[in-house]
Amino acid sequence: MQLDKSKQLFERGQKHLVGAVNSPVRAFNSVGGNPLFIKNAEGTKIYDVDGNEYIDLVGSYGPMILGHGNPAVKDAVKAAVDRGFTFGASTEDEIVLSEMVADTFPSIDKVRFVNSGTEAVLSAIRLARAFTGRNKIVKFAGCYHGHSDSLLVAAGSGLVTLGLPGSQGVPEAAVKDTLVALYNDIESVKQLINQFPDEIAAIFIEPVAGNMGVVVPEQKFMTELRELTKAHGILLVVDEVMTGFRKKFGGAQDHFNIVADITCLGKVIGGGMPVGAYGARNEIMNMVAPLGPVYQAGTLSGNPIAMACGIATLKELKKLNPYEKFEKEAAEIEACIIDAGKEFGVDVKVNRFGAMINPFFTKEEVVDFKTAQTSDTKKFAKFFWAMAENGMYIPPSQFESWFLPATLSDTDLIKIKEAIRASIQSIK
Ligand code: PLP
């Protein structure tokens, strides 16, 4: 595989960018080798600067659910560009997108748009603390909610309860009120509630984890989590940044038939533009400024171009209704990985949730962070490069979900399956 131009850019980028990237996973540290520099993308394909073509199964880590260059979305963005970039004042499109969100999520009466998933979640923390008058928050080991201080807590193995900073520069004071429970394990939640009665403001959860690879919780766990939080006056913050509009238009809450207290959104809602959102019932959202005492603001929040992109993306998604297609294609990909693993003697498990899917190179069923970590990451690294050689762009980490685009053709699907088979054969 020719990567000369990517290599040159990687070297050049080192001088004035940190590690030549603006988000760490793009540096390919966990798979080694030279990161790809992308020139353009169209439909289901993405092209690097050396002219290599790949089927894009990264989808920019989730936003590009329609594939690249959807004509209706492009037209909407171009029209918004012509009207002006940003006004520091409200526009009708913000109202339109808020109506679409509120119509989709029964948990949301009012929504606030921000610029990223990280911002959505950190605003939700402040709001939950203000609403409940409590300080402690709970997250689950292996879940990622963006890079804000208080949720950037090391997801250590075993029964880690009190958080430790997961990054230098995060003071212990910022995480002293963060508690860590075990995913898919309601007893670990009960223990924390017993240990800190009346102190927990909110429990934050990825309703399907995508950031330890895909881990789908049991229905019973989600139902019990909802009942337990309600019974103890704890807000349930469902972080649908990744799962929103993904397996069902109504997100994971629709799938699990639960209603969150606060819902966080990102990725698909901006269709590739920087948009995040948090929303809740009136009683909670009315605490946010200018209606209430919880301050949260943004120069570019509700940016007109981003709103236009989000509206067009959601409209197209609703029209296309790709959810059955996702299910069928992801099931075929899952079967292909399992069959190839058996045929070539490679231990591999697959988790999936609609268009979110990924293999784990392990013998164990992956049900939480601990079992996800039994994966052979060296094997994954080889698999990643074999997939690239075979024309597939998958996330360069064992612990990231793949995202199928809604527009995969039959030919794409055949190519994906052939690439998987060849790649698993090559790492046996
Ligand atoms: N929450 C979840 C579940 C995510 O997957 C992510 C990002 O991957 C975030 C929050 C943070 O979003 P962003 O990267 O837009 O800040």
UniProtKB/TrEMBL annotation:
It catalyses: (S)-4-amino-5-oxopentanoate = 5-aminolevulinate. The keyword Cytoplasm applies. Its main location: cytoplasm. Its EC number is 5.4.3.8. Transmembrane segments: none annotated. It comes from the Bacteria. One of its GO terms (molecular function) is transaminase activity. CDD domains: OAT_like (cd00610). The keyword Iron does not apply. Signal peptide: none annotated. Keywords: Cytoplasm, Isomerase, Porphyrin biosynthesis, Pyridoxal phosphate. Its cofactor is pyridoxal 5'-phosphate. Belongs to the class-III pyridoxal-phosphate-dependent aminotransferase family. HemL subfamily. This is Glutamate-1-semialdehyde 2,1-aminomutase. It comes from Acidiluteibacter ferrifornacis.
